Structures are given as structure tokens and as C-alpha cells.
Fold each of these.
Amino acid sequence: MLNSRRYPEINHDSTNFTQQKFLRVYGDAAAFRTKFYHLEDFISNPNITPADYKELFPMFDFDVTKQSKKLKNSVTDIQIKAQFSET
């Protein structure tokens, strides 16, 4: 949430590492370097396989660069709400 507004509007509720449902978050994490440093994919490829991502690097990447201009010019309240489970 950015200033009590959901951002980005992508829902990550379907992410489930136990059931192998993490392709969206894996793709976001793998593309982070490309987006952040503005490099070509073959230069910034992190070489993290989906299995390595699941077991070693389960990171979430939230790209907040495309928010409204109103949020960019003021102090922003950031809230991250997450639910975790163990099986």
C-alpha cells in the first residue's frame, strides 16, 4: 500500500511455493536488475534457476516507479501486508 492505496494492483495471493506456483514473483525478481540498471537481459541475467529461487532466494520485487506524480512529490506511507504459512 502506498498512502492507503493498493500499488501495484497485481494480486500475489496465488503465490504458493509448496505447490510450485511462484512464476510471477520469480520473473519479477529475475528482471529486477534489467529494470533497475536499464541493461539488456543477456547482460544482467542473474542466472538464478526457479529451483534456486525457491530454495535460496525467495525474494519479492515490487516496482513502485510508475506511481502517480502526486505520490512522487510527497512523503509516502508504505505498508506491506503478507500472510505466510508453513506446511
Amino acid sequence: MESERPVLGLVPPTGRHAVTPPLPAHPAIDAVMSTAAELLGMEIVFIGGLTESTFTFEKVRSSAVWPGVQEGATGERSSSLCHQLLAGAAPSTTDAPNDPDYGKVATTTELGIQSYVGVPIRDHAGHVVATLCGIDRDEVAVSDESLAVLHQLAEVIATHLGPLVAEATVIRRRPEGGWTVGEQETGDLTSAMILADLLADDLTPGARPAKSDSPLDEVGQLRMSVKQLEHALAARVIVEQAIGVLTERQHSSPRQAFERLRKVARSRGRKVHDLSREIVMSATDPGVPLPPELAGRR
């Protein structure tokens, strides 16, 4: 069948090996891709998923039609530019065909890549599970400052590839007793809250990033975007932990707990994130005051 034919050395999504754990569909990931595309100014920005033997275009943001570059397309890892990056090649080049590292892989010629930039995405244990990259068919230079911002964006993605994916930090009571945080088990609620904090990598939201009084250049504006993404992510961690507490305390589903949290926050003119912090604190300190709607069991 036509769909089963390799496309420039890459095969379509069917039967492919995806990044592990799976890349979640989340607005933060889309925001990272958008910010990276604006930062690099390249035709293609993508997240590359890697196994020991395969490379996959996990997520692609394109400003031009480029045959062979599509989400889900998979090829041999050793034929990818990302493999060369992780093997020690320079993080960027504007002359991939003649580069001593990138010029020797088939994908450079097959896809007509002239410029490439990439940074690793690591899981919470420090293992490389993916890459955040850009490619272009013309010469597009990437400054050291832009490369540093790209590393920051990769860290935002890395957090979503870890235990925070989906409801991993939501704390649940086990029918046979005890608690679970994601797939891990613990004996009591206090331990569960501590475990959730550890799984969240101690992310705690500070004040919302302040806007600069002086005009920012393009890279400065993108750095501000990264800080806002990081702040939003940290706030999400606190909200998810609060949902876990309310789910058990009120014998409700996570969705019902979130809706109740949001309703109470609105009615009292509070921010969901601030109220969530108090709920999390109340799990280990009964003296923390909470609105009656959230303080007890239904």
C-alpha cells in the first residue's frame, strides 16, 4: 500500500516507537513549540522522540511544506541529525551537508537540510528521551543567546514528560488502604503529599514574572515567555496537588474536585492557584483556615 512505503527513509506513524513516556497534548507544549519557532526563525521546529534504534518526529511545527517531515514519521536513529547531536556534534550548523558530523548522515541529503539546531530533552532522572530541534533548507544562524533560551524551553517540555503528565501528581486513596501518587504507593496522606512534592521536583510558583520597565529585544521577550511558561507550570503542580486532597476529602472525582475549587475561588474573588496552596497546606496542618465548602467532607 502507498502509506506503507518509506518516505525519504522515514516510515509513517503505524507501528512506530513513540517517545517514552508519551508526549502529552498540553497547551504548554504548544506554547513551547510556538516560542521556539519564533526564536529560531526556521522552517521546521520539531520534537524528536528517541529509542535505542529509532527516531520519530513526535511533534512538528512547520511554516513551509517539507516532504518527509511529518508527525509520526520514523526512521533509524543512526540516520538522524539528533543522533549526531547526542553523540557529541555541535548543537547547531548552517552548513549541514559539509559538516564533519551532520554531513555523514543520510537524512541531511535526503531532506535537503542546510541548517540544524538541537538540544536534548531529559527526564527527571537525567536520561535523554527526546530532542527539541529546528531545521531549514537555507542558512539560518543561531546565536548562543538563542541556544540558551532553547535549552530553557527543553526544560519546560521535560517537566511534562515526567511524573506531571496527565494526573500523575493527583493523590488517590487505594481501595485496600493506603495512597497512590501516580503509580507509586505510600501508606498515609502525609507521606503521599511529600511524595507528590518530590515527584513535582519541588516546583513551587513564585510571583508572576514582572514585566520589564524598559523595552525588551526579541530574545528578551522570548525569555519572558519562557518564565511565564515556567510559572504557569509550577502553578499547575499546586492545583493538581490540591485536587488530590479534595478528591479524597470529599469523596469526589478529580473533575468534580476541580470544578468545586474553581467555583469557590470565583465566588470569593480568589485565584485558584492561591487557594490551592492553602488546601495543600491544610492536608498536614489542620489549623490552616479554608472556606467551609472545601474544609470538610460532603
Amino acid sequence: MYDELIDLGFTVIGYSKTDPSTFWNNALINQVLNDEEIKQIEERFKLLDRRPTLYFEHGIKLKELTEKLELKQYKKGFEDCWQFWQGKEIDQTHFNSIKKVTTSEELETFLEVFNNCYQKDDPQNPYGELGDYLKAARNVWNKHHVANRIEYFMVYKDSKPVSVSTLTNYKGIGYISNVGSLREVRGQGFGKAATLYCVSKSIKNGNIEHCLATEEGHYPNVFYQKIGFARRFVAVGYIKT
């Protein structure tokens, strides 16, 4: 979803032109930073007109970084539970009803279904309405689908698309996202099929890892564990207040 990756040596900043949210504008960290490094990150975010956000694995290794950020008026804004496929046999139910998005017309259908899967006041949806994210989803498909770096899929019930998913292929990692089903078909296995089809496709593409990120304590987190994923680590986004 990033339009640009900015490598500062001690961090890589992901930047989205279309989606200003901290989910798609953050600095990936894997070490304790000094004050000057944090200052450089903040200055770069200021130039990008984005809130300074640092994203890192939440663990003992970076406890000192967490304490330092809290002293600098940063607060935890979001937390992701990273889950990885455990190599179990893949249930292929509904696979023959799944179609990859290959045209601009199909893309518009995908975005419409995707938007309808993520509505407010939905107990199974902790993310709310998609808003500007739809613009980013359209742009990133146009930019990367020819190279097969990103793939969009729709699951059909009869002739109607009822579920969607996305697979991103990058450096041996298959990242699964944007999974959703229309409310009227939930419980019928379409969301499961959309997810597992991405796992199957990721394996065929030669990826070594097949993963996704959710929020602990919410329905999607439990759902993915039930169908074959397991928690490996938690990552947090610390945002300058």
C-alpha cells in the first residue's frame, strides 16, 4: 500500500500519498533508537505531512525504546497480532468459485464488494468503514497487478461475488489481507475460502512464509486461528501525541 519507501539507514519509512492513516505511514524499527535518530524520523514525517509513527515488535528487546518513546509523548496507537500459516492441509471448499481480478471492470466490482463487507456497527468488523483506503486499494492494484506483486480475489455464490481477499507477494512472503464477506453469507465458509485460497496461491507462487495481521481480542483474530494460522509475535504502532 506504500507509494514510497524511505531508507534512513536505521529505519525504513513507508509513505502513502492517498491514505493518511498511521497504518500506512510509519517507520519500521528493529533496534533501540537514540534521540537524534528519533528526531530525524519526526522531521521526515513533518515533511510528508504525516504523524510520526514507529512500528516495531513488542518484546523485551525493544522495551527500552518503548520507555523512551513514552517520555517523548508517544502513545501506543494500534497493535497487530502477526499470524503465520502452520502447514496444515488446505480445505479447498468453494475454490472453484473463486476468480482473480484481471480487468478494470472486475476491480470496480471487487472494490464495491470489499466496501460492503466493511460497514460500521458490525460486531465482526473491528476496523470500521474503509473510507480513503479504497482509493489506496485501487491505486496499488493498478500499480502492481501486472507484475503479480499484488492479487485480488473474489469468491462467488452462484453468479454473485460475496467475499474478497488480497495476496501480496514480496521477497518470499505471501501477505494476506482485505478478507471480508457480505453479512448475508457469513457462516457459509466463503471468508475461509477467500483466505485459504490466498495461502494456496502463495505456496504456488513460491513464497516461504504465508502470514496476516489482526488485532487480538477481536473476531478475525480467533477466526484465523481456527482455520490454521498461529500467533508468532505482536507488533505495535507508537504515535506522537
